[in-house]
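User: I'm writing a short methods note and want a consistent example. For AbrB family transcriptional regulator, I'll paste the sequence; you return only the structure tokens, no commentary, since I'll be parsing the reply automatically.
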Amino acid sequence: MDGTEYSHQSSSWKESKWIRFLTACTIAVLGGFFFQLIHMPLPWLLGSMVFVLIGSKIFRGITFFWPVQIRNTGMIIIGYTLGLSFTASTLAQIGQQLPTMVLFTALLLVCAGGIAFIISLLSGIPFPTILMGSIPGGLSQMVSLAEEMKGIDLTIVTFLQVSRLIMIMFCVPLLIFSPLFHVTINHSAAIAATGSSGGYAALFPHIWLFAVVCVLLALIGQKIRFPTAFLLGPMIGTMLLNLSGYEGHSLPILVLDLSQIMMGSYIGLLLKPENLKHKLKIILLALFNGVALIGCSILLSLLLTRLHDITVVTSFLSLSPGGMDQMAFIAKDVNGDLSVITCYQLFRTLFIFFAVPPLLRVIFQSVMREKRMAQ
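Assistant:
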């Protein structure tokens, strides 16, 4: 065998999707074990995310591969878990809070717009690009919208959205378990309590019905381009079955841990700082953006506790500028009110999906018109 043939076989081995996927899996599991060992919150989510992110930069000979289908499976599991938290009484409570959801969603988006304006002034980066990178909880929607609009730097938008998501996943659990919120619950015990009711045997036979409905609604949601279809479809299906009398059971801890790895590893591969120009400046701006949004969320959550009889932890997780899946994992750790948290996050997701894009188009057209007139 000559050197050329050996080199070709070596390259082919490294390009195999199975090898790239199994390497990412191994790194992700090691990250989960390490974060569990040092008692980090959400060890399997954060550990897999960080190790896959770092590993993908260290092992440059192998390009990590994480199929979107596995991420979607993790989202279906999370959607099922979220749907179980909805009962008739919680839905009635949510109906009472609908005006508050509208108000606080609007306030959070106004805060995001103000922060984007300040960053734009400080950095010289066009306001539309910074604004689209700052809208909380709308990663997929904002990236898709940025691709359709002229004059938007897609790399900066993606980096700001993903870096904020990663900051939320790290900072929110650390804040929740800090003296600021006075949470003393053993999060491992909380997960065990919510994830082990009856073990695997208690899941059957109804789990088959839930599985079919969850997958079917996820695929239908994707077909009609529903926002985060693989999360919302299963959640809605589980909620309807749960309210109709079919009893769903919490999933075992192992399944919940696997869903964290499925999500964390995918997110870890999204961030590609090597594609950025002026890396240091953009990273500092992303840090400022994330910290400012988290600070606004804390202030708004304190105001929300004055209006409704909910804990500050539930209030903060409801308004945190992350996503429903990440907030749900944290809520299970601290026994937060999943139904309230999910509804606030869901309302903001739907609002961002349906109302924000046309609003942004109007704003950007107005900005472009003023620029042309000034010239």
